[in-house]
Amino acid sequence: MTRILVVEDSLDIAEGLQRSLEYDGYQVSLATKAAHALAVATSDRPELIVLDLGLPDRDGYEVLRELRERGVQTPVLILSARREEADKLQGFRLGADDYVTKPFSILELMARIGALLRRAAPAAFPAPAASSAAASDAAPTSGPLSDAALRERYGLTARQTEVVRLLAEGCSNAEIATRLEMSYYTARNHTEQVLGKLGVSSRAAVGAMLYAQG
Known about the structure:
The chain is an alpha/beta fold and 214 residues long. It contains eleven helices and five strands; from the N terminus they run E-H-E-H-E-H-E-H-E-H-H-H-H-H-H-H. It has helices at residues 11-23, 34-44, 60-69, 85-93, 106-120, 133-138, 147-154, 158-168, 173-180, 184-198, 204-212, and strands spanning 3-7, 27-31, 48-51, 76-80, 98-101. Mean pLDDT is 84; it is low at 123-142.
Protein backbone atom coordinates (compact mmCIF):
# COMPACT_ATOMS: atom_id res chain seq x y z
CA MET A 1 0.00 0.00 0.00
CA THR A 2 1.36 3.43 -0.97
CA ARG A 3 2.31 5.46 2.10
CA ILE A 4 1.73 9.21 2.29
CA LEU A 5 2.86 11.53 5.06
CA VAL A 6 0.62 14.57 5.61
CA VAL A 7 2.38 17.36 7.51
CA GLU A 8 -0.29 19.84 8.54
CA ASP A 9 -0.88 21.68 11.84
CA SER A 10 -4.61 22.17 11.22
CA LEU A 11 -6.27 18.99 12.44
CA ASP A 12 -9.42 19.69 10.43
CA ILE A 13 -7.45 19.86 7.18
CA ALA A 14 -5.15 16.98 8.14
CA GLU A 15 -7.96 14.62 9.09
CA GLY A 16 -10.00 15.58 6.03
CA LEU A 17 -7.03 14.79 3.79
CA GLN A 18 -6.46 11.55 5.63
CA ARG A 19 -10.04 10.41 5.03
CA SER A 20 -9.92 11.27 1.32
CA LEU A 21 -6.53 9.61 0.80
CA GLU A 22 -7.40 6.48 2.74
CA TYR A 23 -10.62 6.16 0.76
CA ASP A 24 -8.50 6.11 -2.38
CA GLY A 25 -6.43 3.26 -0.95
CA TYR A 26 -3.42 5.09 0.47
CA GLN A 27 -1.88 4.51 3.90
CA VAL A 28 -1.63 7.88 5.64
CA SER A 29 0.50 9.14 8.53
CA LEU A 30 -0.13 12.54 10.10
CA ALA A 31 2.38 14.97 11.60
CA THR A 32 1.45 18.35 13.06
CA LYS A 33 4.99 19.51 13.89
CA ALA A 34 8.25 19.70 11.98
CA ALA A 35 10.19 17.49 14.38
CA HIS A 36 7.65 14.68 14.06
CA ALA A 37 7.52 15.08 10.29
CA LEU A 38 11.30 14.77 9.95
CA ALA A 39 11.36 11.69 12.16
CA VAL A 40 8.59 9.93 10.21
CA ALA A 41 9.97 10.93 6.81
CA THR A 42 13.43 9.57 7.56
CA SER A 43 12.39 6.41 9.39
CA ASP A 44 9.27 5.27 7.52
CA ARG A 45 10.27 6.53 4.05
CA PRO A 46 6.78 7.33 2.71
CA GLU A 47 6.28 7.44 -1.05
CA LEU A 48 4.96 11.03 -0.91
CA ILE A 49 4.93 13.94 1.53
CA VAL A 50 2.23 16.62 1.60
CA LEU A 51 3.86 19.53 3.43
CA ASP A 52 2.28 22.63 4.98
CA LEU A 53 4.63 25.58 5.42
CA GLY A 54 3.06 27.17 8.52
CA LEU A 55 4.16 24.69 11.18
CA PRO A 56 4.30 25.72 14.86
CA ASP A 57 7.90 24.71 15.62
CA ARG A 58 9.72 25.30 12.31
CA ASP A 59 8.94 26.73 8.92
CA GLY A 60 8.02 24.15 6.29
CA TYR A 61 10.82 25.40 4.05
CA GLU A 62 13.32 24.39 6.72
CA VAL A 63 11.75 20.95 6.87
CA LEU A 64 12.08 20.58 3.11
CA ARG A 65 15.68 21.81 3.15
CA GLU A 66 16.65 19.38 5.89
CA LEU A 67 14.95 16.46 4.17
CA ARG A 68 16.94 17.06 1.01
CA GLU A 69 20.15 17.55 3.00
CA ARG A 70 19.55 14.17 4.65
CA GLY A 71 19.26 12.60 1.23
CA VAL A 72 15.52 12.01 1.38
CA GLN A 73 14.34 12.24 -2.24
CA THR A 74 10.69 11.46 -1.55
CA PRO A 75 8.39 13.61 -3.72
CA VAL A 76 7.12 16.61 -1.75
CA LEU A 77 3.91 18.48 -2.54
CA ILE A 78 3.70 21.78 -0.69
CA LEU A 79 0.17 22.67 0.44
CA SER A 80 0.16 26.24 1.72
CA ALA A 81 -1.83 29.45 2.04
CA ARG A 82 1.23 31.35 0.78
CA ARG A 83 0.22 32.30 -2.72
CA GLU A 84 2.98 34.66 -3.90
CA GLU A 85 5.15 33.64 -6.82
CA ALA A 86 8.24 34.12 -4.67
CA ASP A 87 6.91 31.55 -2.18
CA LYS A 88 6.36 28.99 -4.91
CA LEU A 89 9.78 29.60 -6.45
CA GLN A 90 11.40 29.19 -3.04
CA GLY A 91 9.68 25.85 -2.61
CA PHE A 92 10.84 24.59 -5.98
CA ARG A 93 14.40 25.85 -5.35
CA LEU A 94 14.52 23.81 -2.15
CA GLY A 95 13.39 20.65 -3.93
CA ALA A 96 9.57 20.62 -3.88
CA ASP A 97 7.94 18.64 -6.68
CA ASP A 98 4.61 20.48 -6.71
CA TYR A 99 2.91 23.40 -4.98
CA VAL A 100 -0.83 23.76 -4.29
CA THR A 101 -2.31 26.82 -2.60
CA LYS A 102 -5.08 26.95 -0.01
CA PRO A 103 -8.01 26.98 -0.30
CA PHE A 104 -7.70 24.03 -2.61
CA SER A 105 -9.86 21.69 -4.63
CA ILE A 106 -9.69 18.15 -3.27
CA LEU A 107 -10.12 16.85 -6.84
CA GLU A 108 -7.11 18.80 -8.06
CA LEU A 109 -5.04 17.82 -5.05
CA MET A 110 -5.82 14.12 -5.45
CA ALA A 111 -5.03 14.30 -9.16
CA ARG A 112 -1.68 15.97 -8.48
CA ILE A 113 -0.83 13.38 -5.84
CA GLY A 114 -1.61 10.57 -8.27
CA ALA A 115 0.53 12.20 -10.97
CA LEU A 116 3.49 12.65 -8.61
CA LEU A 117 3.33 9.04 -7.52
CA ARG A 118 3.24 7.81 -11.11
CA ARG A 119 6.25 9.94 -12.03
CA ALA A 120 8.15 8.66 -8.99
CA ALA A 121 7.46 5.00 -9.84
CA PRO A 122 6.47 4.81 -13.53
CA ALA A 123 7.04 1.07 -13.70
CA ALA A 124 4.18 0.52 -11.29
CA PHE A 125 1.52 1.88 -13.65
CA PRO A 126 -0.04 0.07 -15.32
CA ALA A 127 0.51 -3.20 -13.53
CA PRO A 128 2.89 -5.24 -15.67
CA ALA A 129 1.76 -7.87 -18.09
CA ALA A 130 3.62 -11.17 -18.25
CA SER A 131 6.73 -9.29 -19.25
CA SER A 132 9.51 -11.57 -18.09
CA ALA A 133 11.10 -13.95 -20.55
CA ALA A 134 10.06 -16.92 -18.45
CA ALA A 135 6.43 -15.85 -18.44
CA SER A 136 6.51 -15.21 -22.16
CA ASP A 137 7.97 -18.63 -22.86
CA ALA A 138 5.55 -20.38 -20.56
CA ALA A 139 2.38 -19.16 -22.25
CA PRO A 140 1.62 -16.67 -25.00
CA THR A 141 -0.56 -13.73 -24.14
CA SER A 142 -2.90 -11.70 -26.25
CA GLY A 143 -2.76 -8.67 -23.98
CA PRO A 144 -5.26 -7.43 -21.39
CA LEU A 145 -8.90 -8.41 -21.37
CA SER A 146 -10.96 -6.68 -24.03
CA ASP A 147 -13.91 -4.47 -23.18
CA ALA A 148 -16.26 -7.16 -24.47
CA ALA A 149 -14.63 -9.80 -22.28
CA LEU A 150 -14.87 -7.56 -19.24
CA ARG A 151 -18.56 -6.97 -19.82
CA GLU A 152 -19.26 -10.65 -20.48
CA ARG A 153 -17.22 -12.12 -17.62
CA TYR A 154 -17.96 -9.58 -14.92
CA GLY A 155 -21.18 -7.90 -15.95
CA LEU A 156 -19.62 -4.46 -16.20
CA THR A 157 -21.40 -1.56 -17.83
CA ALA A 158 -19.66 0.46 -20.53
CA ARG A 159 -18.87 3.21 -17.99
CA GLN A 160 -17.54 0.70 -15.47
CA THR A 161 -15.28 -0.71 -18.18
CA GLU A 162 -13.83 2.76 -18.66
CA VAL A 163 -13.26 2.97 -14.91
CA VAL A 164 -11.41 -0.38 -14.96
CA ARG A 165 -9.02 0.91 -17.63
CA LEU A 166 -8.26 4.02 -15.60
CA LEU A 167 -7.77 2.03 -12.40
CA ALA A 168 -5.29 -0.14 -14.27
CA GLU A 169 -3.38 3.03 -15.18
CA GLY A 170 -3.16 3.88 -11.49
CA CYS A 171 -5.67 6.74 -11.56
CA SER A 172 -7.17 7.99 -8.31
CA ASN A 173 -10.89 8.63 -7.93
CA ALA A 174 -10.20 12.33 -8.51
CA GLU A 175 -8.41 11.61 -11.78
CA ILE A 176 -11.17 9.24 -12.89
CA ALA A 177 -13.71 11.97 -12.18
CA THR A 178 -11.76 14.42 -14.31
CA ARG A 179 -11.08 12.03 -17.17
CA LEU A 180 -14.68 10.82 -17.38
CA GLU A 181 -16.26 14.20 -16.57
CA MET A 182 -18.19 13.04 -13.52
CA SER A 183 -18.29 14.03 -9.88
CA TYR A 184 -15.75 12.70 -7.43
CA TYR A 185 -18.46 10.83 -5.54
CA THR A 186 -19.78 9.21 -8.71
CA ALA A 187 -16.26 8.08 -9.56
CA ARG A 188 -15.85 6.70 -6.06
CA ASN A 189 -19.11 4.77 -6.33
CA HIS A 190 -18.10 3.32 -9.70
CA THR A 191 -14.76 2.24 -8.24
CA GLU A 192 -16.46 0.45 -5.36
CA GLN A 193 -18.82 -1.33 -7.74
CA VAL A 194 -16.00 -2.33 -10.08
CA LEU A 195 -13.86 -3.78 -7.29
CA GLY A 196 -16.86 -5.79 -6.12
CA LYS A 197 -17.66 -7.15 -9.57
CA LEU A 198 -14.04 -8.02 -10.32
CA GLY A 199 -13.67 -9.71 -6.94
CA VAL A 200 -10.47 -7.86 -5.98
CA SER A 201 -9.80 -6.21 -2.66
CA SER A 202 -7.68 -3.28 -3.81
CA ARG A 203 -7.29 -0.85 -6.68
CA ALA A 204 -3.70 -2.00 -7.21
CA ALA A 205 -4.90 -5.50 -8.07
CA VAL A 206 -7.01 -4.39 -11.02
CA GLY A 207 -4.21 -4.07 -13.57
CA ALA A 208 -2.61 -7.35 -12.61
CA MET A 209 -5.96 -9.13 -12.88
CA LEU A 210 -6.62 -7.71 -16.34
CA TYR A 211 -3.30 -8.92 -17.73
CA ALA A 212 -3.23 -12.22 -15.87
CA GLN A 213 -6.53 -13.25 -17.48
CA GLY A 214 -5.95 -11.73 -20.91
